[in-house]
Amino acid sequence: KSDHGAAPWQHRADHATAISSDGRWLYLYAGQHRDEKTGNWFRLKDTWRVQLPEARPNDWQRLGDLNAARSSVPVLAVGS
Predict the structure, then answer these.
(1) Which residue of 5, 22, 46, 73 pairs with 16 in a disulfide if CB–CB is 3.0 to 4.6 A?
(2) What are the pLDDT digits (tens) for 7-51?
């Protein structure tokens, strides 16, 4: 578990995570972000990964975006 704000991605709710079939990577994607100043919620489409088992906050790598911003995201098939 990372301290709030320690990872490079925006904090979020209703996001999804997946572990690659070879167990080497943890993926985080989509969800909703609440702007701290306005209180407005925004859907996100970014995807991130970090190598396991270390998974240090500064080791997260940003990948490409999903086709559209999503919340309550569906299952994502992750190849090895």
Answers:
(1) 73
(2) 777 777 777 888 888 999 998 887 888 888 999 998 888 888 999
**H, E, C per residue of 9-42:** CCCCECCEEEECCCCCEEEEECCEEECCCCCCEE
Q: Give the integer Cα–Cα distance in Å for 67 and 46.
A: 10
pTM value? 0.73
Rounded Cα distance, 76 and 1, in Å? 22
Return d(Cα 55, Cα 48) in angstroms, integer.
Answer: 12
Do residues 54 and 2 lie in contact, with contact meaning Cβ atoms separated by under 8 Å? no
